[in-house]
Design brief:
Purple Acid Phosphatase, chain A, domain 2; globular; alpha+beta; about 30% strand
């Protein structure tokens, strides 16, 4: 027998209340699970003074590390607090070390001459206000599959070009399949966005870590410096950090932290800071170098349409002016992310080419359809340019003096092949 609409109101109120309680309970349970998962995560980060063993654990004490058969206690990097209920531990690994392990887990140490490299970036699941991604759907947020696929490549080193943490706001469950997701600059969100899905790749090779704009101080800087950065933990979150060189491997990799740079206008204090940093980079560059940073030196992105014509933005004006678009001959290429797609811009050989890998998990940007070859960028024409707007990552394999690149999809299949030779990067 049908009830009257008036009598249905209390029943509907009960149903809505129970649904809310169920969703809240699921969210709380999921957040608690992420806060407790990965009770011991051990991996290696390459820093300016050598490799660093990093352990994140829910145990009350740091574990022992065994290096070349000798065991010692790891040092406390950061004790648990109200936001990060985990212990973070560090130990510097000597360059001469042959083996290292934490418990039964062997750590991957760097090779002086790596021949297999994985590049990925912008991996987290986007939850910000009304912009929500289906974090629970691997088809919509494929970072875990990408990490597993990239680990199977058996890399010698992994370069992550930044933006690990995207879960800034609560999930809006009627917009996307993201129920139960934690959010905010805390261990639960970091674990959900990065450490749990990245586990196989963290164990596969040592990492070069670059902070992105999502890890700047107003956003997730506290978590970044606690969990990710290879240097000494600062007492407070710094807006700018000095560049450093990883010069115990060939090619030399120079890390530039441009996480704070403004995309939209040139700010005098930033211009001064980055001008000083490029002067430092010019002094430290030697041999053959890759300059890695989150925000690209050069990139085109879709900003809209006007009168049926695509409008493009050009990045990054502050860095271009700070560097005067002049770089030492040892810098072979720029490697970056930030724009959520794959892009290559190659010039005439007097300027290093730009590789952009920002398509490794977060919501993709709108495709760039304008042909890039022949466009002008910072006073120089693009000799070759291409872009791909599908989820994936890049592998690099040394072939003599050159590097063969493969642009790979989520499962590891090739979407394009490229060759980095001298200062030319071309794809087919």
């Amino acid at each position: 027998m049908l009830r009257s609409s008036k009598s249905l109101i209390p029943l509907l109120q009960v149903i809505v209340t129970l649904a809310f309680i169920a969703i809240f309970s699921l969210s709380s349970a999921s957040t608690a699970a992420y806060a407790q998962a990965n009770t011991t995560s051990a991996f290696v980060i390459l820093g300016p003074h050598g490799p660093v063993a990093r352990v994140i654990t829910s145990d009350a004490h740091c574990p022992q590390i065994t290096i070349d058969g000798t065991a010692s206690a790891m040092h406390v990097r950061a004790a648990p607090d109200q936001h990060f209920a985990v212990m973070v531990c560090d130990t510097a690994i000597p360059a001469s070390a042959q083996t290292a392990k934490v418990g039964d887990q062997a750590l991957k140490l760097p090779k002086a001459n790596p021949t297999r490299v994985v590049v990925l970036g912008d991996t987290g699941c986007r939850l910000k206000g009304d912009t929500v991604q289906a974090c629970n759907d691997p088809g919509q947020w494929p970072f875990a599959q990408i990490a597993t696929s990239a680990a199977a490549f058996n890399p010698d080193v992994v370069i992550h070009v930044g933006d690990y943490h995207y879960r800034e706001s609560p999930c809006i469950v009627d917009k996307a399949d993201c129920a139960g997701s934690p959010f905010g600059d805390n261990w639960a969100a970091w674990n959900a966005d990065f450490f749990t899905p990245a586990t196989p790749l963290l164990h596969a090779a040592p990492w070069i870590i670059i902070p992105g704009n999502h890890e700047d101080c107003p956003r997730a800087g506290m978590g970044y410096f606690r969990l990710m950065d290879p240097r000494t933990l600062p007492s407070s979150c710094p807006t700018f950090t000095d560049p450093y060189a990883i010069d115990y491997m060939n090619p030399q990799v120079i890390v530039l932290d441009d996480s704070a740079v403004n995309d939209f206008q040139i700010e005098p204090d930033q211009l001064l800071a980055y001008k000083k940093q490029f002067e430092q980079i010019n002094q430290m560059a030697q041999g053959k170098s890759w300059l890695v940073m989150h925000d690209p030196m050069y990139v085109f992105g879709h900003v809209g349409d006007k009168d049926g014509k695509e409008q493009l933005f050009i990045d990054q004006l502050t860095l271009q002016q700070a560097s005067n678009n002049t770089f030492p001959p040892s810098i072979q290429a720029f490697i970056s992310g930030h724009v959520h797609l794959f892009q290559v811009l190659s010039f005439d050989g007097t300027r290093p080419p730009q590789l952009v890998v920002g398509n490794s998990g977060t919501l993709l940007d709108k495709a760039v359809t304008t042909p890039l070859t022949g466009l002008e960028m910072a006073g120089m024409k693009v000799a070759y340019g291409t872009t791909i707007d599908r989820f994936g990552y890049v592998t690099m394999e040394a072939t003599g003096e050159n590097w063969a690149l493969a642009v790979r999809n989520v499962s590891g299949g090739e979407m394009a092949k490229c060759l980095l030779s001298g200062r030319q990067l071309l794809c087919r």
